[in-house]
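Q: My labmate handed me this sequence with no annotations at all. I'd like to see what the chain might look like in three dimensions before we decide whether it's worth expressing. Could you predict it?
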Amino acid sequence: MSQHIVHTVLAGGADRLGAMTNALSPQTRAAIINYDPSQPHALNVTEFCRSVKVSRSVFYKIRARAASESTAALHPRSRAPKHPSRRYGPEVINELVKIRKRLKTDGWDYGPRSIHYEAALQDGFPGGKVPSVATIARLLASVGQVDASPRKRPKSSYVPFVRSTAMSLWQLDAFEYRLHSGKTKTVYQLIDDATRYDVGTLAYARHENSADAKHVLQQAIHRHGAPGEVLSDNSLAFNQLRRGVVGPVETFLASHGTMPISGLPGRPTTQGKNERSHQTLIRFLDANQPASLDQLQGRINTFREHYNKRRPHQALGQVTPAAAWELLEHTPATSPIPLVVLEAKASEYRQLRNAQARDLDRSRLTVSKTGETILEEAVERDGDQSIVEVTGANRLVYYHGYHVKLPSTYADRQFYRRLTVDEFSLADPRTGLIVFSFPLPLRALNVRGRYISSYAIRGVQMSHPTKHWERKHAELKAQFDRREVDYPEVFIR
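A: Here is what I predict for the chain of 493 residues:
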């Protein structure tokens, strides 16, 4: 018998023993307490227990309790918990809801942790005791004050990417924000990787460009000094090394001893901290609705003050970014980086790109974070081109927001995608043969939201299709033929 089974049996026996003890009447308990085996003609313990219908363990338990508690053993012990859960009245719940609504209206995070922090700062919280974070979540859920959220991937499944010292790495990214007046401005966010400290968030009137990105970095370096590295995406405004050239932002950073680095194209999770901070800032801006560039920058300054010095950060153990900034060791840049280092890095990327282009027997290209292709200026193009990977868990290719599902035979393979004015095609990068294509504009049947089965596309061509795919395609092709007679124009719905 394993240890787990033995433990289960013993635990079950203890439960039954406790239940049996509580079920005894006061008369039976009195008989057990008054039993004296030394009297003439007295029954032995086993026979006495059999006569009152109790076990020997219960007998000795009652006798031991009588020796220490006297007549209290005539009654079962209370089964109420020794430390009962605290009950909170309506005034506590109302106060929590009020704090939650105020945070939400002001544009701040309004989860249980944020509510607990704000409640702890109050002098006159009802009852004088703030509930725990878990209790706040339970109380709010009991009155329907929760926002439904989709199931997320557990945090334990992620590999954390974080530096251990402040000033070791900054993350730079930008997003466009539409003002209340309808005009669009660009917001650049610059945060420290280790402390999440916002070292410089500024708004500009123009679209994303190198001059404004350089100005953001100039202002932050003037206040805090130069970091060891600056991480950005592969936008031409931030980092042009992967394109094979050294841009003005990289030159400026190198002159201060900062190494510019970038994430892989199409992998925004590398800049996940900055991407997540966009959500918090946008929520605050939406709640305050700036109407001009000056108002936008004023709202950003208010946000930075609250974000850095007042708002506790869950990833930092519920301390503020400003506190983490002060506590952690700082490792800034020390000496300028020679420009030849960046030129060598750009040359390495350029050679790699050229090698990939030769393997494809196509002209050279670079894929940006949005999936758009950046072509060499000296070469003319007639279509959008990129490398796509189809996996077993995600057998999809994308066209204008629509998700086209491919058969399982296309899983775990890479394809050369080419998009022209009149055709979408996938080709084998080794042989150059087109394995999947359909004419444009896209026409399809049985569209569910944005998901389209490849066999449901009008005019689709596929090499080596499965029997199931051929059967479904033939059925839908017949429907297309009938609709072409009845309805001259077929649109995706």
